[in-house]
Design brief:
Layout lengths: L1 H11 L2 H10 L4 E2 H8 L3 H13 L3 E6 L2 E6 L4 H12 L5 H28 L3 H6 L4 H11 L5 E7 L5 H6 L3 E8 L2 H14 L4 E5 L12 E7 L8 H10 L1 E12 L6 H6 L8 H10 L3 E8 L9 E7 L15
Parallel strand pairs: 4-5, 4-7, 5-6, 7-8
Antiparallel strand pairs: 1-3, 2-3, 8-10, 9-10
Helix pairs in contact: 1-5, 3-4, 3-6, 11-13
């Protein structure tokens, strides 16, 4: 125990490695990301990351040809990392500069994704069918949320508004949020054509929802997370707006190795392992009810997974009104 603790503290007790821990507290990052932010060579940063991983302070996971790093979730090193980060002065000039560079790196990636959506907005549904058996996935989505009525539905990353259209007959109101104005224009046209006056869309940031806590009975995040830098953050925001007993349904790709999706289709992640998504949902305070993986259709190459989670707070029944004589 003494030797392990000494090794962990020694690994963290170096300026660059402490900066890496602070950055990984903000987001999962690759060596390339850290190279851009810290302005150090890739071999040097790879050595720092190896030492942090060996000490149990960070975790490394590979997706295709990319390797991502994040703070350790379990073990003694995880607790030590968070204690050290909490002790850092957020106004320190080095920390502030690193966070500014992290913001710049994220902005570049976000701009690339938005350019992709702008170019492909009109053909989005067709593109998605190349990889997903839409009919089977939509049947599974409806079945996952069929056991209870939905008053208010929120669709994050609504795209063309298909999820709102799918659930429109069964909900009292629906709201779709998306960052892309091009996608929102298509979604509005779709809802107008269908006469769905109880559904609307607007621009919104999935990381910072301009919505009050406890607002929705169900939230859907459908084929969105693989475009994001910080999926766990998006899940936490979705959980925040759930009412007591509300449900969150995440639908995304299972792990795959189709590297061309990064360059040609702006994918940040090549799918999600079941245990990773479960960790994120539980860390957001939700109970995971089920996980299901659907094989690809005849035209597809990637399996699709669904995770259904619920806010554990008890829904209190309203007291019956008393008759007044």
């Amino acid at each position: 125990m003494f030797a392990a603790l000494t090794r962990t503290l020694k690994a963290a007790g170096e300026a660059t490695r402490l900066r890496i821990l602070a950055l990984l507290a903000e987001a999962e990052l690759t060596v390339s990301d850290l190279t851009d932010i810290l302005r150090q060579s890739q071999p040097r940063l790879s050595r720092h990351l190896r030492l942090l991983a060996e000490a149990g302070l960070v975790e490394r996971f590979r997706e295709g040809s990319w390797a991502f790093f994040r703070l350790a979730e379990r073990g003694g090193g995880a607790g030590i990392a968070r204690v050290l980060i909490a002790r850092l002065d957020s106004s320190d000039a080095t920390i502030v500069r690193d966070r500014e560079r992290l913001t710049a790196v994220r902005a570049v990636r976000a701009a690339a994704a938005q350019n992709y959506f702008r170019r492909h907005a009109a053909e989005w549904d067709r593109i998605r069918k190349l990889h997903v058996a839409d009919a089977a996935v939509e049947d599974a989505i409806r079945a996952a949320l069929a056991d209870r009525p939905i008053g208010a539905l929120l669709d994050l990353g609504t795209g063309t508004g298909r999820m709102l259209e799918l659930f429109a007959p069964d909900i009292e109101r629906g709201l779709g949020l998306d960052l892309s104005l091009d996608m929102l224009a298509l979604a509005r046209a779709r809802l107008d054509r269908a006469g769905l006056k109880h559904c609307s869309v607007r621009q919104g940031d999935i990381y910072d929802l301009a919505l009050p806590r406890d607002s929705f009975d169900a939230v859907i995040i459908h084929q969105v997370l693989h475009f994001l830098d910080d999926s766990a953050h998006a899940i936490r925001e979705a959980a925040r707006v759930l009412r007591p007993g509300g449900r969150l349904l995440v639908v995304d790709f299972a792990p795959h190795d189709l590297e061309f999706l990064r360059e040609e289709h702006a994918h940040r992640r090549l799918g999600f392992a079941a245990e990773t998504m479960t960790q994120w949902l539980e860390a957001a305070g939700l109970d995971v009810l089920r996980q299901q993986t659907l094989p690809p259709g005849p035209e597809g190459k990637i399996a699709v997974s669904l995770w259904l989670a619920r806010d554990p707070r008890i829904v209190l029944a309203q007291p019956a009104a008393r008759e007044v004589a």
